[in-house]
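Reviewers asked in the last cycle whether our approach scales beyond single polypeptides. To address this, we selected a multi-component target totalling 1426 residues and predicted its structure end to end. The input consisted of the following lines:
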Amino acid sequence: MSDLVSETLKKLSISAKEVSHAAVSDAKSWSEALTGEGFVLTKTLILKPKTGKTAPVTPVVVIALESTETNATAIGKKLSLKDCRFANEELLASTFQATKDNVSPFSLSHVAQLDLVHVVLDADLPTDTLLAFHPNDAQKTVFVSLDQLKAYLASINKDFIELDFKALAAAKPTGEKKPAAKAPKAKKEAATTAAADDSNQMGLGCKKEEDFPKWYQQVLTKSDMLEYYDVSGCYILRPLAYNVWKEITNFFDGAITEMGVEDTYFPMFVSNKVLQREKDHIEGFAPEVAWVTKAGNSDLEEPIAIRPTSETVMYPYFSKWIRSHRDLPLRINQWCSVVRWEFKNPQPFLRTREFLWQEGHTAHLHLKDADTEVKQILDLYEKVYTDLLAVPVVKGVKSEKERFAGGYYTTTVEGFIPTTGRAIQGGTSHCLGQNFSKMFNITVEDPNAPANATEEAKKLHVWQNSWGLSTRTIGVMVMTHGDDKGLVMPPRVALIQTVIVPCGLTVKTTKEESDKIFDVCQDIALRLKKSGLKSKADLRENYTPGFKFNHWEVRGVPLRLELGPKDLAKNQVSCVRRDTGARFSCSLENLESEIKEALETIQNDMYKKACQKMDESIVRISEWDEFVPTLNQKKLLLVPWCDRVACEDDIKERSARSANDGEEEDEKAPSMGAKSLCNPFQQPTENPIVPGVTKCIACDHHAKHFMLFGRSY
Amino acid sequence: MSDLVSETLKKLSISAKEVSHAAVSDAKSWSEALTGEGFVLTKTLILKPKTGKTAPVTPVVVIALESTETNATAIGKKLSLKDCRFANEELLASTFQATKDNVSPFSLSHVAQLDLVHVVLDADLPTDTLLAFHPNDAQKTVFVSLDQLKAYLASINKDFIELDFKALAAAKPTGEKKPAAKAPKAKKEAATTAAADDSNQMGLGCKKEEDFPKWYQQVLTKSDMLEYYDVSGCYILRPLAYNVWKEITNFFDGAITEMGVEDTYFPMFVSNKVLQREKDHIEGFAPEVAWVTKAGNSDLEEPIAIRPTSETVMYPYFSKWIRSHRDLPLRINQWCSVVRWEFKNPQPFLRTREFLWQEGHTAHLHLKDADTEVKQILDLYEKVYTDLLAVPVVKGVKSEKERFAGGYYTTTVEGFIPTTGRAIQGGTSHCLGQNFSKMFNITVEDPNAPANATEEAKKLHVWQNSWGLSTRTIGVMVMTHGDDKGLVMPPRVALIQTVIVPCGLTVKTTKEESDKIFDVCQDIALRLKKSGLKSKADLRENYTPGFKFNHWEVRGVPLRLELGPKDLAKNQVSCVRRDTGARFSCSLENLESEIKEALETIQNDMYKKACQKMDESIVRISEWDEFVPTLNQKKLLLVPWCDRVACEDDIKERSARSANDGEEEDEKAPSMGAKSLCNPFQQPTENPIVPGVTKCIACDHHAKHFMLFGRSY
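The resulting structure, written as structure tokens, was:
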């Protein structure tokens, strides 16, 4: 039982009876696990009503008899909540620190924003019999009376409503709009809820193509890459994930140092005054800024913001440091974390409240110097994806609507997740123009101004860039390469590139033979390590080779080496590729060079495979009629476009609406509207745009260029 | 004029007349710089009353006629403020963003906590004449009327009191306790205030031995190592400083990776619940914790803390991850920033509200494994100081009083700043024992427990360590090596190790000769760079060699190469060491190897010099009578000690009091009490402690070992 729950009960003087048993995941096994009488089984269901995109989630906790037939839609209707559905595991984990199999009313003690939660009690819960709950632990059962349960709710100041589900069920047909369509959906989700518990299994409990959100969560946690954290929207990056970031850091920091960019560290705190200096910019970030208002027991005189990005943090100092054109270019970078308190559903790596990134900020005398750098940096971002993460991207320029708040133009590397058919912004390199330099008064005297010019005429506002790449990279990598067995790590960013497993040892193997095998495995690991490869011999006893194979497969180790007596006799080692499962052998003599080559091959093949998938998924169309159907086939669309904000708004609305039979847009549904992704640098050369002739795909205007559109993260 | 000031005046519709002139730093030059009539000169003085150690500073802003004789002590008395003194530059910079030469009433617009500030107006300020002020810019003067000044104060909601200084002066003698002793002090400080402005000079405006705090501030800002920031206690680490941290990171991260420690990243946010889990521990940190209570416009349901350190952040997950003794040792580390909102005077690098550090957290099956690691890490910390920063340290164990909150024992590397005679804790490696593992329930089954033991008896709480090293290292390095010319960088952590300056070019030098010299300088820089040395040719035109020498000297570049026509003729380059000023020449043929060797020599000599200074400053004494006098000679004391908390408290009190004639302790004064620094691993072998015979230096108990005592940062 979680400490919190046991503490809570103790504080309430609820001396609840508690029993331990094997983990149970359904009513049948649970009832079998419990002996004795005088209690009834219950179920605790968490529903999630639909809320506005930026609004917080308002979960519904339903506490009912196991035997009661509940209905999510009817409950939602009764509570006047829109579109109630079963919450996913992410919400359960982040908000209640529970899984479907161990959630209980006491999970409410874990909830940070209790006032957002609705609690529903089944009117059928008996007053004279104990109620059985899992106290955040599927291996335990705790027994409390209805009065104790209500005392608990009172102690956390949580109101509840009682619902008569039988009466609700009877009333259902009249109240429902589309009963036929909705009912199967709810049932299917309920079935998922009751599915076998897989949180203790080593492998994944679901398939990437079948339940992508669940797959993503499992692949991250079961590979030990990431751990959920008790502050919503924050996650723990474990060594496997952090190592990817270290490799990116090493590569990118080396490259920009070579370019003359210098690393710095600015404070994470910004005064409100400074934050407000650039209005367009702050408008883009204000709703997500986290504020420190207290230190120890003292209230701060003025709230202090945590940086969401550092333009306004840095540029007052640019103005101080840049005195003459000789101080240009000024180019600095920092590796830090930033905070954007988003209220949308958080998602590991892709949308988190704190994330790691680098942010470069530079100032130039001429626009052309700024332009050149914008592209150099974008090329480096591309390389991070293609060369390190084996992920293809499309480079291009963002539309006016999608441009960085307060900037001049934004370039981007756009990634693509084939399984969901959604694009993802992979990194952006902005030219800020002179907007910030005017706001922050960053000027130099124009070295080319005529000597008799006035001081004002000689004043030249510098041209600025900013560019950032974040740990989102890691999420894109996982989504691209992972499979039903777990992670697949590109060799260049793998924490362990090869693992060596002793195999083929049976009861007949002598101690001597077995020791020899173990020694050679250790020796192979050391040889490979010496040659610069990250290698490990898995010499754990009491584990079968099969167990070890699974262990390292879920963690995505690119190459597994197996060494048994037969291999040793042939002076070779058997190799298995994680990406393809292909098996080959490798002589012990040329071990280092052959393994290095194999890893290179894996890296290249992974990239090629991802490229092929992306190429297949970018479809060029020119008629509006094809737009939504092609989008629905999980494709990105390359279309002739007029490049107008109004047209983009219109496309988004029409692609959402028409896909959804006039229902509202929902970020998570496949029916969300398409956004412009970028104006690709590489435009089609076959049948190019004919100025003044080619029409925009979506309106009556003439097309200016091809634009990439798609659903997007 | 600062933007803020000009904006403020504009908002008030104060169309103040403003004139520009050369920077002025005293009344005489100011009055000479201004022409015309109809105005009077003013002065704005900032006083700092004495406040409790953890209480915020409450500055007094005195706005007076230049000709008025003000008296800090009398003002303090009038306002019932204790021990008013002139504020130092640090306070001016951090709170008012001003220097002594440009501070004005309008600097109040920069103050974050206006309610802490007292404003005093000279009753003699005329109503019918304009008042001249420097608007945060010593090169400008702005003229406003007294009414406009009062309107300004009203606009920022700031009350003021008027003081009649003449009346005060007349009343003085009766009110003062020790007029003779105090008056010279106030006068001396006033003189400092009026000292020549050096904020625009390249070199330092003070000597290390004469005004250490001012020297420290100047060496940091004039070397471009650090920039003051508008949130108090936060500073900008510029490339010169950040590079030191990068070198430390590279060295230390490489070493611990080799040991098997893995890098991770945990969120910066901690829920209150989790933070409170370990009571002793949180008691140590609670007064300094910064709290986020708002995001965008929404109040958070519960305040969320920013980590001051990560024990309680990480250990709930240790409990989850450690299931069996096979999961041990678990060893992780993270590079991050932490926040400790101290209310004491902040000091760059040494005491800052946000700082960068690494924190390692490990768990072991046996105490002896934990012990071994504690020492390994401490040895690495020692190496960071000795091998990278050329700074000696003393390794040892902290006393019970100085031990980490909630820990078992703390080891430390103690540094020493000879100029102030104060020690500084350089890095700590803690054994946490089983305290946290009991609190967070981190257990494994004892692999050696008898098979028939109960489950409870088999349970073994893991042994934990935590260890941290911060950017404080950089401050210690600067204080140790810097001199009256500025920074002196140890070659191994220098951003630029050698700078090449073309010299000896006169009006008679032909264009061809001069081009040749420049080319060879560039070539030398490239050759050195290729060989792995961080080199730069300073080919700026319009700057004299002398200017460039100063420029790089203040920035501490370890070795300057000069190349003139004579050097070129001899195929050599002249070299000047930054640490000693010694000059030698080096043949262009063996350039790379000779320069490398010279840098190694500089690194070693800097370390040797610092060691000698430290050795001289550690004095072994055994009689209490010598204790305070030796302390006052800026020494550290190695004394026989009984190792009792009560005795340590007593020593601190007696060493403070006796040095101060019974006055109260003041952290900044040389009279602050001595703290125990460490029980050095290396105990004297000559005349060692005789158990049961040797007495403690400070009490009647027997001495257990030699302890290092000293005043400390």
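The longest helix of chain B spans residues 591-617. We regard this as preliminary and will revisit it once experimental data from Aim 1 are available.
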